[in-house]
């Protein structure tokens, strides 16, 4: 069941009404049933997988709490991590490793006949696996007590608003909320619905509209050069942001309607003035997960510049691999690690250039230049994320400014509908204007100063815009594949 489906628009109000209508002691059961129904609407058999992925960490955490032996605790932690990561590897990475080994050994004329596994990637497996990993590690570290109620822990793992594509919540933050009594609150419900509405606007009006143009170019990348590749790359930068941030806003808003608070996952990432800042604004639940459970345990930035650069490379290599079992995703992650390492290495030089050129005396201009450069570095990296193969990615990256038969004269082939293209560009401008106001803190001020009817008018205008300009093709959310 996708958020952008009629099924969800019927399912969600029923769940909310039932949730507030039930006594508190039974609400966890409703949320668990609703979450499993939500997940099973894709493939019912994979409910067994998520149930197993829930049971092992739950049992391991309780056993860790009961034993006084550090050695046994480590063994239980290892069993839990190995189980979760083993399932993730089997379903997501086994074929990737198999195919990569076959290609390498073929170059050495060594036969390799391990069969290709015919399995469908379970929706959301990377997200709920990371949630169970962080829970088990936090219990092992003594940062949180184990949750002994299996049903409530199962709701934490499968909570339907954020089950499929996050935010990746920490147990210490989300589990206590299932124990709290939530009562209907008009303001909270209105704010949650407004956040969901903004998410639907981003997904249906912008992301799904841009998807057609991006797919037309990137699914036939070798046929294009120059301008079509540039425009499609810009469009993908906005498509993936609006698609994934749209999902996150809907998830956060849906949870808020029922009284739950999920962490912010996006904070206007394209206003970042450096790659490091970009990752403090983009997919925050994932970037902080890697920081807390990988980067800092490896030593972070505490053991010298070389170790820091090594840690960044390892983290972003794995971050790319987390996103997809393909070398294009690895290249995307490695490219971001090189941006970060390059930023560290060139910081003194860039400071001297800014001082010497005089631009440092104009902080707004200097800030705008850094945002411009960071956005274009990010957009360039998105080429590898979106491309269907490394060959396509290299073609796009090396032909952005080339002229040829697939260049400007081929532009109408991919962008044929001028009116539709105008709507897409106008929607992006609306997004930029809203985010500009948000970045300056003006949205909250404007809402506080204006009467309530204006807020409702804005909501009705958003609904009208979605119905009039939305693309209702049931396009899957991009991050469902991860």
Structure report:
The mean pLDDT is 88. The protein is an all-alpha fold and 482 residues long. It has 19 helices and no strands.
Question: What can be said about this structure in brief?
Answer:
The chain is mostly helical and 482 residues long.
Key features?
482 residues; 19 helices; 2 domains; mainly alpha; 0% strand
Structural class: mainly alpha
Helix percentage range:
over 70%
Order of helices and strands: HHHHHHHHHHHHHHHHHHH
How many structural domains are formed by the residues? 2
Number of strands: 0
Strand residue percentage? under 5%
**Spatial shape:** globular
Count of discrete alpha- or pi-helical segments spanning 4 or more residues:
19
First CA to last CA: what distance?
Answer: 16 Å
Backbone CA Rg = 24 Å
Q: Segments where pLDDT lies below 50 for 5+ residues? A: none
Could you describe the largest sheet, including whether it forms a barrel? none
pLDDT averaged residue by residue: 88
List the helices and strands and how they pair.
Layout: H1 6-21, H2 24-40, H3 47-66, H4 70-107, H5 125-141, H6 150-158, H7 171-179, H8 186-218, H9 227-257, H10 275-281, H11 284-295, H12 305-323, H13 327-357, H14 363-386, H15 390-398, H16 411-414, H17 418-439, H18 442-449, H19 452-469
């Amino acid at each position: 069941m996708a958020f952008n489906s009629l099924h969800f628009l019927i399912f969600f109000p029923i769940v909310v009404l039932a949730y507030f209508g039930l006594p508190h002691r039974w609400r966890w059961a409703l949320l668990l049933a609703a979450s499993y129904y939500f997940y099973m609407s894709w493939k019912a058999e994979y409910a067994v997988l998520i149930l197993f992925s829930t049971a092992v960490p739950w049992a391991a955490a309780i056993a860790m709490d009961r034993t006084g032996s550090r050695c046994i605790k480590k063994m239980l932690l290892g069993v839990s991590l190995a189980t979760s990561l083993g399932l993730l590897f089997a379903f997501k990475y086994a074929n990737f490793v198999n195919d990569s080994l076959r290609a390498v050994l073929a170059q050495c004329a060594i036969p390799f006949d391990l069969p290709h596994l015919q399995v469908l990637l379970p929706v959301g497996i990377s997200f709920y696996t990371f949630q169970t990993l962080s829970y088990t590690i936090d219990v092992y570290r003594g940062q949180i007590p184990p949750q002994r109620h299996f049903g409530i822990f199962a709701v934490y793992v499968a909570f339907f608003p954020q089950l499929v594509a996050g935010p990746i919540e920490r147990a210490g933050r989300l589990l206590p909320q299932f124990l709290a009594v939530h009562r209907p609150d008009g303001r909270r419900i209105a704010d949650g619905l407004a956040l969901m509405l903004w998410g639907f606007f981003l997904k249906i009006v912008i992301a799904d509209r841009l998807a057609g143009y991006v797919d037309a170019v990137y699914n036939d990348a070798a046929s294009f050069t120059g301008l079509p590749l540039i425009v499609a790359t810009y469009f993908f930068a906005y498509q993936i942001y609006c698609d994934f941030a749209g999902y996150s806003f809907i998830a956060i808003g849906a949870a808020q309607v029922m009284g739950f608070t999920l962490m912010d996952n996006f904070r206007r990432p394209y206003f970042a003035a450096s790659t490091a800042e970009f990752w403090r604004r983009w997919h925050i639940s994932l970037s902080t997960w890697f920081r807390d459970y990988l980067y800092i345990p490896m030593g972070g930035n505490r053991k010298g510049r070389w170790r820091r650069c090594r840690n960044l490379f390892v983290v972003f290599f794995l971050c790319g691999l987390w996103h997809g079992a393909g070398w294009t995703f690895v290249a995307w992650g490695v490219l971001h690690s090189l941006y970060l390492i390059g930023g560290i290495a060139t910081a003194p030089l860039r400071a001297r250039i800014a001082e010497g050129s005089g631009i440092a005396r104009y902080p707004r201009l200097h800030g705008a230049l850094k945002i411009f450069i960071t956005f274009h570095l990010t957009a360039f990296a998105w080429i590898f994320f979106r491309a269907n193969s490394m060959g396509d990615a290299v073609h796009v990256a090396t032909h952005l400014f080339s002229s040829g038969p697939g260049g400007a004269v081929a532009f109408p082939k991919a962008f044929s509908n001028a009116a539709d293209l105008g709507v897409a560009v106008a929607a992006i401008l609306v997004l930029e204007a809203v985010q500009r106001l948000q970045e300056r803190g003006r949205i909250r001020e404007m809402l506080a100063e204006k009467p309530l009817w204006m807020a409702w008018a804005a909501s009705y205008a958003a609904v009208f815009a979605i119905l009039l300009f939305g693309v209702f093709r049931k396009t899957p959310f991009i991050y469902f594949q991860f």
